[in-house]
Design a protein that fits this description.
heterodimer; A: 337 residues; eight-stranded mixed β-sheet; four-stranded antiparallel β-sheet; 35% helix; B: alpha/beta; 12 strands
Chain lengths: 337, 346
């Protein structure tokens, strides 16, 4: 059912939430495709819509208040939006798996690790208890938990944060999914443990050929892990490009600002950091123009009045900005210096 | 003013904070050595960065300096006077000069007080002003940290995370302190807001001559803000050097692994770099490994490391490290390891 290796294609997805404050357009038109073995990074600050995008793909939006109001989600030829809840359950956890930020709250504290791991394969792969138990041990070994045969019968509180995230990954990969969605998988972990987990995801991706969507606020994490990146702001896609191109020649002032505001250890200290002024907008009450105009150092009158176009810079590079071409050329010129 | 004969603003001498975990009727009570013999000096006007992984004791160290956690041993000199053994009444007076900024701007502000009350409380407590003067001072402080004084009657929940952190900073500044412990002040904030708060802290330092202890697990932020950086592991300082030096020339295997673990926002660099991946987790501080606490994860560990706890000693000018395998004559652990040198100075 695949067409030229594409496993997921999302077209103009819109997910809105009905709130007391009015309609929040949490995701307002996002389009991307993901090929087998590819890794897509979705970057954004809190409230940008990056997690809602992923929950929509998994059909995990609580309804009400949320609702996918438009667009297509095609997974391996299957129209995900048209599936019944029972059909969704057959896909979720088996063919599309996910890991969340907080491994402490994603595991049931009352159940043994073995029980939680076995449940997945008994349900989706029809394993017997015995098969499922052996498979659970094998998965724990795969994700690098030492002494897996013994630890499989432990409880979550007996594992450290990094080890729990490994258990989550083991669980997610139990049915050999085609797509793994990782939502801030290392945010709650220490840097040395983060490095271990990222290395593990990279390694498993290569061994199993899984496609990955990596959602994070950390530009450093996506730099080394992804093939292409989507930058989100206030529910909109602000920029979309292959990873190297996005970092080398960004075509959106927001992306440029984000890249500049991360302290670079190689540079001298003492100079103030570049800072994006102001605060992210209230997504329930967006201004008519560009949602970033208030904070943008390049904004002109038109930015405050008219909603910006989604400009195609080249085949794979898009930017939501009235001045996308100029910003891109500016980045190219800076790069050339 | 009585002094202990030096010019350091803050001087820690063998500071210890040990927590006893109930042992029950039988068996030894367990002791967590959160801070275990830390000696270091903080100069007036500098920012000392303190980095380490969760559970290493960095927050406890920060709190112990201000006696928000009682030290169980050692001394904390502030302008030459020992805070650790000061009677509570005198300590209260000193708190004016020593303030703290907390990690979680959501949890550290009283939700039932408005901004005017929150920032004004320390001014009233220390009787620095009264009546309408307080309100004027609060308004000025709000503007200093980049908040409009129009918001003085608003409550914490009406502000974003970054704005709440500004309120926390204004409250700390209200008593015109000399020294501020900033415990992970930017960790809970979005990337674009982190830069704002770091710039604000730097500007305030320049304008008011503040001295900071900046505690963070974010090595990029620490590198940017700090003059010197101390690296902590399981209750002990393992390396201390100027910020530039600790990144360019880290001596300790642990410091190198920490620096190497931080992802760089540049795909070209990420594709090339060889990452040092440490095996295993940080051991429990309840029963830390004997000898050098890091030996269980250290690629250079030898038998001696399991036996003897290393001291923090000067290896190069202004650069101290705690490792039995390096000294001033032989500062490179790789060179020593490949030369088959064992423990040095034993």
């Amino acid at each position: 059912m695949t067409n030229n290796g594409t496993i997921l294609s999302v077209n103009d997805l819109k997910t809105y939430f009905q709130t007391e404050d009015g309609v929040v357009k949490a995701v307002d038109g996002i389009t991307f495709t993901l090929k087998k073995g590819e890794t897509l990074g979705i970057v954004g600050e809190s409230g940008s819509g990056k997690s809602v995008t992923n929950l929509s793909v998994m059909r995990l939006i609580p309804e009400p208040p949320g609702k996918i109001v438009g667009g297509d989600i095609i997974f391996n030829g299957i129209d995900v939006r048209a599936l019944s809840i029972d059909e969704v359950r057959k896909v979720r956890g088996k063919r599309i798996a996910m890991i969340f930020q907080d491994p402490m709250t994603s595991l049931n504290p009352f159940l043994k690790i073995s029980t939680q791991l076995m449940e997945v394969t008994q349900l989706h792969l029809g394993h017997t208890k015995d098969q499922a138990y052996k498979h659970a041990i094998k998965m724990l070994e795969t994700v690098g938990i030492p002494d897996a045969a013994k630890r499989v019968d432990g409880y979550p509180h007996e594992f450290s944060g990094g080890m729990r995230q490994r258990v989550m990954i083991a669980m997610a990969l139990s049915c050999d999914p085609e797509l793994l969605i990782a939502d801030e998988p290392t945010t709650a972990l220490d840097v040395t443990i983060q490095a271990q987990i990222l290395e593990l995801i990279k390694d498993l991706r290569e061994r199993m050929g899984t496609s990955v969507i990596l959602i994070t606020h950390d530009l450093g994490v996506v730099a080394g892990m992804t093939d292409k990146i989507i930058v989100m702001y206030a529910g909109k896609v602000f920029e979309q490009a292959p990873t190297r191109e996005l970092f080398a020649t960004p075509a959106n002032p927001y992306t440029k600002g984000l890249l500049k505001s991360v302290p670079d250890p190689a540079h001298e200290q003492g100079d103030p950091l570049y800072q994006i002024p102001g605060l992210p907008p209230d997504v329930a009450h967006l201004p008519p123009g560009c949602p970033f105009a208030e904070r943008c150092d390049r904004a002109e009158d038109i930015c405050r009045k008219e909603y910006p176009p989604f400009v195609q810079i080249n085949e794979n590079h898009f930017s939501l900005c009235h001045f996308a071409q100029e910003v891109y050329e500016g980045s190219v010129a800076e790069r050339g210096q | 003013m009585e002094t202990n004969g030096n010019q350091h603003l803050i001087s820690l001498d063998d500071l210890r904070v040990h927590f006893r975990l109930g042992g029950g009727l039988f068996g030894e009570p367990k002791v967590v050595k959160a801070v275990d013999g830390v000696s270091l000096d903080i100069e007036k006007g500098e920012t000392l960065g303190l980095v380490g992984e969760s559970g290493c004791g960095k927050s406890t160290l920060g709190k112990a300096i201000l006696r928000l956690t009682e030290p169980t041993g050692g001394r904390v000199y502030y302008n030459g006077r020992d805070l650790a053994h000061m009677p509570p009444s005198q300590m209260r007076e000193q708190r004016r000069h020593l303030q703290m900024i907390f990690q979680d701007p959501y949890a550290s502000l009283n939700p039932r007080m408005n901004v005017g009350q929150i920032i004004g409380e320390p001014i009233r407590t220390f009787k620095l002003a009264s009546g309408s003067t307080v309100e004027k001072m609060v308004g000025d402080l709000m503007e200093t940290v980049g908040l409009s004084r129009r918001f003085i009657k608003r409550y914490p929940h009406e502000f974003s995370g970054g704005q709440r952190q500004r309120i926390g900073i204004a409250r700390a500044l209200a008593v015109d302190p000399e020294f501020i412990v900033a415990d992970e002040p930017i960790s809970a904030l979005d990337v674009s807001i982190q830069a704002q708060i770091m710039n604000l802290m730097e500007k305030l330092q320049t304008d008011k001559g503040l001295t900071y202890l900046f505690i963070s697990h974010d090595l990029r932020a620490v590198r940017h803000l700090s003059d010197r950086v101390a690296v902590m592991y399981l209750g002990k300082i393992v390396e201390l050097a100027p910020g530039k030096v600790i990144y360019a020339d880290p001596l300790m295997p642990y410091t190198r692994a920490l620096i190497s673990a931080v992802p760089v926002p540049d795909p070209e660099i990420e594709a090339r770099r060889e990452r040092i991946i440490l095996q295993g987790d940080v051991p429990s501080p309840i029963n830390p490994p004997a000898g050098c606490h890091f030996h269980t994860r250290c690629p250079f560990a030898i038998e001696e490391c399991r036996q003897r706890a290393p001291q923090l000693v000067e290896i190069k000018p202004g650069h101290r490290a705690a490792c039995v395998r390096i000294n001033a004559e032989n500062p490179s652990i790789e060179a020593n390891a490949s030369a088959g040198l064992g423990a040095i100075g034993s």
